[in-house]
Amino acid sequence: xxxxxxxxxxxxxxxxxxxxxxxxxxxxxxxxxxxxxxxxxxxxxxxxxxxxxxxxxxxxxxxxxxxxxxxxxxxxxxxxxxxxxxxxxxxxxxxxxxxxxxxxxxxxxxxxxxxxxxxxxxxxxxxxxxxxxxxxxxxxxxxxxxxxxxxxxxxxxxxxxxxxxxxxxxxxxxxxxxxxxxxxxxxxxxxxxxxxxxxxxxxxxxxxxxxxxxxxxxxxxxxxxxxxxxxxxxxxxxxxxxxxxxxxxxxxxxxxxxxxxxxxxxxxxxxxxxxxxxxxxxxxxxxxxxxxxxxxxxxxxxxxxxxxxxxxxxxxxxxxxxxxxxxxxxxxxxxxxxxxxxxxxxxxxxxxxxxxxxxxxxxxxxxxxxxxxxxxxxxxxxxxxxxxxxxxxxxxxxxxxxxxxxxxxxxx
Length: 412
Prior knowledge:
Its cofactor is heme. The protein is an alpha+beta fold and 412 residues long. It is built from 15 helices and 14 strands.
């Protein structure tokens, strides 16, 4: 293999704090797309990887799931966290390749299909109204993330799983600690690396108890489906079962809350687009997709080459890791007209926020429904909105978005 191409700009992808500074992050990613779209990254604390930043290349890697495996490194974490999670034995859907992935994914697939979405629509619409009413009751000013955006999708996904409402605050805290382990506000400790997996172990303990309860007394919820699933006549192993819960609980909550809060910020900062949407609510499906592209709550996924290959002519060795930067792909000038413009009528909008190929997000339809129904309730009632303070983003390299969004508004 030839000497790897290295661009210093790519180091931001292994810097959680860089995701809290969007101008700096996007400047670096724009430089990479223009000059070094496949760049080698070797920074202290992380195992080396190739940064893939162009939309077309992300799609090409996602399409070729035999050449580019999810196992054993689906997410960018520190080398120490890689080792600790391997020791725990985590095996979620994002760790699996076909044929195992296809079979395990099928366990919960019906819960996120068209029939299930039709059945949930009324419930989600009712919840959207409830949380817009809470905005009204807050008196015209709130931290939109903490008072609205994190609670609405949490209620949806926990209800789907069958988790009692009394446990919702606990699950919110655990998901924030788990996905916000690089953020000082959410992490349990800035000192002990071992404590960074504490939230994961606590979540596993919670879902172990839930599994036991649903196996003893099955009910009509997703938790019962997972707890009592059988593959080739055998029940899912304990680790696989709780891993399934964990990925649904976290992915089904934080990604959607990030999109809703980021969408709210985009409307506040682009009043012309808010007015356009208010004048023509038929644009809401396109606006939903644009919010998802704009936020890109899942910042990146990783793949591992199963043989020597190339990406955009760059040699990649067997065993090398690749980081697929979704946030970069969704601002690619070759894939989107004026990609740094928030456009509620953008069409086409071939974003990769949900991934592509066999690992396309299982809960994409649910996320779209939640975002759509929330803004369908809010937009006609919203007469004004503006920022009431500085938005704050989560430090992360995986899933993230706003953690605080102070807004001032008036509602009908």
